[in-house]
Amino acid sequence: MAKLRFTPVSGEVQIELPSSKSHSNRLLILQALAEEPVVLHPLSDARDTVILKKLLEQIRLSNGAQLDLDCLDAGTVFRFLMAYCSVNPGSYRLFGSERLMERPITDLVSALQSLGASLKQKPDAWYITGKALDGGELELSNVQSSQFVSALLLVAPALKKGLHLTWRGEKHSWPYVAMTLQCLSDFGVGWERIGDEIWVKPGLNPKAEYQVERDWSSAAFFFPFLANRTDLSLSFPGLRLQSLQGDAFVERLFRYEGMQASEMESGIKVNWSKPEWSRNALSLNLNRYPDLAPPLVIYYLLQDRDVDFTGLESLALKESIRDAVLADAVAHCGGQFAKQGEQWLLRSRTMVNPKALATHNDHRMAMAFSLLAMQFNELELSEAESVAKSFPQFWQEVKKLGLTLL
């Protein structure tokens, strides 16, 4: 267990956010597909991105022997590499942590196999024989993860005939697919979308270099520090209000709560003002933004707000079973976060100091639960180091706000 202590600070504090790992990972796959050199900067230093970059380099330097590709706990890396290895000639053994191997993959495997990919599951790993694929038409329905769709779209330019993808049913986390499509455009890939159908043309025409956005998902863990504080402002160099990232939606949510954001040449600056809506019961659909659930649940708990959430079905498929982990933490704090039909109901009660919370080695749980130290001044967390998966410098940055990892 790691111990946290909170001592409030005031004034203007500058927070250095990491580059977006979602943006970095998509650009890395397209960089690997490009025939000419492409520079990406500044790449995320999140562990997931470091793993993907390392494994892609191994593939690039391979001499034809079977490659062992260990994705550790990186779900995006596993899914993107499954698609990339399927279209890149070679022999691959793809695997990861026990939790990773339990996470959904069937829809992506079936889709790749229907395109002619050679994938075989064995108890220890997936075995892939990469080869040139024709592509063509493909239909998906109610896929469990938008990353399956992004993985297919990212390798579509490498298919001889491109890809005509029909994606029917619920489109969870659509902004991540929209980011993928924009990355394709940035790399000179032609595509068109009409309703459920997406056409991607073969071939890439990349620029020499690309700028990676700063991470909005990480910014969400800092806005709660501002709540009802007029003596504190935060600046985020490199962060932009106009963003490819769907999680930029968090700025809009906190604007309603009372936060004001102004864009400067160097980034954005935020402070607290008057709320734009009454502070009563709230209903939120996070179908498009499931990664915002952890910080928002904890923020609203701290604000003693009752919130009805929908669109959280994918939380059970993340690094931990996030809805259950959140429910347990909220209960230890004296509140309730429970599933009722298609809703998850947050009901605040008199706050109780939980003393210690389990993060289940989930980076977003660790960052979200750290916010509770603002209420209790001291708190213990398990696996505080898990933040390295997306934000290695998280503890250094929150220390600027008075939250210290002892």
How many independent structural domains? 2
Helix/strand/pairing class, anyone?
A: alpha/beta
**Which sequence of strands runs across the widest sheet?**
20-21-1-22
Taking the alpha carbons of the first and last residues, their distance comes to: 10 Å
CATH fold category name of the largest domain: UDP-n-acetylglucosamine1-carboxyvinyl-transferase, Chain
Looking at CATH, the homologous superfamily of the largest domain is Enolpyruvate transferase domain
Number of strands: 22
Architecture of the largest domain, according to CATH? Alpha-beta prism
CATH class of the largest domain: Alpha Beta
How much strand? Answer: 15-25%
What does the radius of gyration come to?
Answer: 21 Å
Account of the protein in words:
This protein is an alpha/beta fold and 406 residues long. Helices cover 32% and strands 25% of the residues. It has a 4-stranded mixed sheet. Helix 1 runs parallel beside helix 2 (47-60). It starts with a strand and ends with a strand. The model has no long low-confidence stretch (mean pLDDT 95).
Short summary of the structure?
With 406 residues, the chain is of the alpha/beta class. 32% of the residues lie in helices and 25% in strands.
Describe the protein's topology.
Layout: E1 2-6, E2 11-14, H1 21-33, E3 39-41, H2 47-60, E4 67-70, H3 75-87, E5 90-95, H4 98-102, H5 106-114, E6 118-122, E7 125-130, E8 136-141, H6 146-155, E9 163-168, H7 174-186, E10 191-194, E11 197-200, E12 209-211, H8 216-219, E13 232-237, H9 249-257, E14 259-263, E15 267-272, E16 282-285, H10 293-302, E17 307-310, H11 322-332, E18 336-340, E19 343-347, E20 356-357, H12 363-370, H13 373-376, E21 378-381, H14 394-399, E22 403-405
Parallel strand pairs: 2-13, 3-12, 4-5, 8-9, 16-17, 20-21
Antiparallel strand pairs: 1-21, 1-22, 5-7, 6-7, 9-11, 10-11, 13-15, 14-15, 17-19, 18-19
Helix pairs in contact: 1-2, 1-3, 1-7, 2-3, 3-6, 5-6, 6-7, 10-12
